Structures are given as structure tokens and as C-alpha cells.
Amino acid sequence: MKKGERRKQELLKIAYRMFIEKGYENTSIDEIIAEAGIAKGTYYYYFESKEATLEAVIDMMIEEEVGKAKEVLAASLPVSMKLVSVICSFRPAQDEQVIAKVLDANENIVMHEKANRRLVEEAVPLLTEIVREGISQGIFDCTNTEERVKMLLILSQHMFDDGVFTERDVEVYVDMVEKTLGAKSGTMSFIAELITGGQND
Amino acid sequence: MKKGERRKQELLKIAYRMFIEKGYENTSIDEIIAEAGIAKGTYYYYFESKEATLEAVIDMMIEEEVGKAKEVLAASLPVSMKLVSVICSFRPAQDEQVIAKVLDANENIVMHEKANRRLVEEAVPLLTEIVREGISQGIFDCTNTEERVKMLLILSQHMFDDGVFTERDVEVYVDMVEKTLGAKSGTMSFIAELITGGQND
DNA sequence: TATTTTTTCGACTTTTGGTCGATTTTTTTA
DNA sequence: TAAAAAAATCGACCAAAAGTCGAAAAAATA
After folding, report:
1. Domain boundaries, chain A
2. H or E stretch at B64
3. Cβ B114–A109 below 8 Å, yes or no?
4. B54-200: same fold as B1-48?
């Protein structure tokens, strides 16, 4: 029972890396098993299908990101910092981004989109909680919090996705965050530095 | 030269219908050619690859939607109406929506996403023009118009995509449109009726 | 040790996107 | 109008890749 789980994790890691490096569609099961040094039957002993593998890989990614987000949530930080930290923690890691650029942007749509949808699902409750905290502190002022958070999250996903975003994009984004959540103008502008600071073009 | 073009259009229509009915990935070339009653070689005489067909299908869709949008743009309507009409015209048609629900939402990610990206590309300039007109009339008030329009368009895409959107979603969306474009509160609330009016759950 | 369960193997099948040379149909040209 | 050229069609064939399955090896259990 132990060995099986380890093997599954091992396969998951290989698949994860290859999916990101070469794209989901461009990675064949044959390549994965070659890399892992196992037979096809073994692979299918652990995964029902290729798509099930993708699903599992995404679960792994989401779990990690949500984990990080929860840490931030638990820390004693000002609400606005929490919010931004969490959102930024959802940004694709450095290496993923770099590698992603080698690929055609169209090359990995399915994985990207599936991951995004799952992330929105998982992250909205967390972010909503933060924003509610902010409301009770008078930092934010809005109704329909959950819906607002969802929309903002969708927006940030798209900004990061495209990889490149201009200063103007960020400016507009910050403005929308402030206005959507009913924050005072300028209070969220520190987002800009955090975002553009971490950008690598 | 004439006949060829007609055949291509015919194939395009078949592909379009089948892609929407059964999803892009679930539609095989063999099925398309069976439906069209032609041989494989003939198909590949007109299309370089399956993906090229998807691209062409999407072009067809976009062309139609942009066409409708341009009509609206040319008409003599109040700016706010123009804006909303155009955005609503991008909503998937009734039948597409109904059929889409039969499918797993994950079933047609690639086509959906590619279409969305192309639409944003094509539609942003048109909408930006409308908003600029609105600014000069004092209805809107904002800078970085293009970026704002893009963000709002992305949002509406996502709302329509999911198929279901609650009243709250729409409420938040309207609020974001107003605030993002610097319109007076309430001036855009008629969007709500138009959107929810056309919804079919 | 005997038996059952878990894990592994790899040849085989099926599906599917794509190729290619031959053939027919249509258009151009001499 | 006949010959030549170009456009369109055909379908057998190919290669890649996902997925199957029964048998065998390894590990756990009685």
C-alpha cells in the first residue's frame, strides 16, 4: 500500500513536469512511462486515463497553492496585504512562466483552463473571507462579496495568463480592485509594485 | 474556383455544427467526411489539419459576431445602448447554449477558449471606440480606456461561458461596468434586464 | 510454506489524424 | 474541338498514441 502511493506520486511529478515543459497534448503516455522506466500496464494500473492524470496533476497544483494561501490567511498581517499575497501566490511560478513562453500560448489551453477553473473554485471562499474581514475593519465596503471576489480573481488569472501585462493593465486592475471592493482610492496601489516587481520580461 | 469555395464553406458548416454538438475533440475527421459524403483526401485538399479547421470555424463565428457588432456601431443609438447591444451580441446563441449544456463543460474547452481570445482581440477596438464616444459625451469618464474595455469584456465572456449566472452576478457586473468606465451609478443598470431577460434556465 | 493480493509487464487493439499517388473532372489553351 | 494543364476527388495506407488484457513476478498474509 505504501509503495503504490509512492509510485503514483512519482508518476504524478513526472507528468506534471512534462505537461508544463511540453504541454499536455504534446506529452504522450509513452514518453511518461519511458521517463519513469515502467511498462504501460503499470501506468494504467495507477491512472484510469491520460485525462485522469491531468486532473490529478491539477489537484496537486491546486492543493499546493491553496496550502500557501491558507498559510497567509492564518498569519497576522493587515488584510490588504493578505489579499494581495494570496492573489500573487496564484501567479505561475518563475520556471513555469519561462517555459510557458517557449511554447505557443495555444499549446496548453486545456491544462491552463482546467487549472484556472479549479483555482477559482477553491480560492474564492478563502479570498471572500479575507475581504469580509476587511469590510468589518472598514477597509472595504461592498455587498455581494463573493461574486465580486470571483470576478476579480478571474481578471487576475487572465492578467497573469497572458504573461505580459503592461503598466496600464496593472493600473486599471488596481483601480478595479479598489472600486469593486469599495476601498478608498490609492489604498491598493501597492499591488502594482508587487506585481510588476515580480515580472520578468 | 467557385466550386472549391462552396465546398469549403459546406465543410466548414458541417464542422461548425459538429464541433458545437459534440465538442471539438469528440469530432473525428472521419465523421465529418462521412457527413459530407467525401473522401479523406478531399477533406485534406481543403484543410491543412483538423486544427486549421477549428481555426477556420472560429474565424467564421467571429466574423459573424463582429459583423453584427459593426452594424450596431453604425446605427444611431445612444452610446450606452450601443455598448450593451454589442456585448450582448457576443453572447452564445440560444441553440449553442442549450447544446453546450448537454456536454460536460470541460468537453469543449479548446474551442471555447480560442474563440474567446479571438473575440477579445477583435472586439476590444470596437468597444473602445464606443466608450470613447461616451467619454466625449460625458457619459463615461476614465483613462486607459482600451485596457478597461478589455477587462470588462473578459468578465462578460466568463459570465456567459458558465451559462448560469445569478442575479447577484449581474448586479456586480453592472456595478463594475459603471465604476470601471466612470459612469454615474445606475446609468448602466438597464444591462441587467437585457441580460437576465434573454437568459434561459 | 501455501495462498492471496498487489504490482508489473509488454504485446496487442483501436482510434484517429494525416499522406500520397492514382484517377476523374473541369478549365485553359493551342 | 482536341490536347494539355489545373483543380478536385478518391481511398488505401501509414504512424502515433491511448487504452486493454492476460500472464507473470513480487509482496503481503495466513
Report:
1. 1-48, 54-200
2. helix B50-74
3. yes
4. no
Which protein residue's Cα is closest to nucleotide D17 at C1'? A28
Contact indicator for A173, B151 with CB cutoff of 8 Å? yes
Q: Is the pLDDT of residue A165 over 50?
A: yes
d(CA A151, CA B169): 9
Indicate the class that CATH gives domain B1-48: mainly alpha
Torsion of CA A145, A132, A141, A90, to 10 degrees: -70
What would the CATH number be for the domain defined by A54-200? 1.10.357.10
Q: How confident is the model over B97-128, as pLDDT tens digits?
A: 655 656 667 788 999 999 999 999 999 999 99
Cell of B163: 451559462
Nearest CB neighbour to A110, from listed B109, B168, B180:
B109
The neighbour count for residue B13, using CB atoms within 10 Å, is 13
Q: Which nucleotides of C are covered by protein (CB under 7 A)?
A: 6-12, 15-22, 26-27
- A27 strand D contact, CB < 7 Å: yes
The tens digit of pLDDT for each residue in B26-70 reads 999 999 999 999 999 999 999 999 999 999 999 999 999 999 999
* Nucleotide of closest approach to B42 (CA, C1'): D9
Contact B168 A155 (CB under 8 A): no
- B148 and A172 in contact by Cβ < 8 A? yes
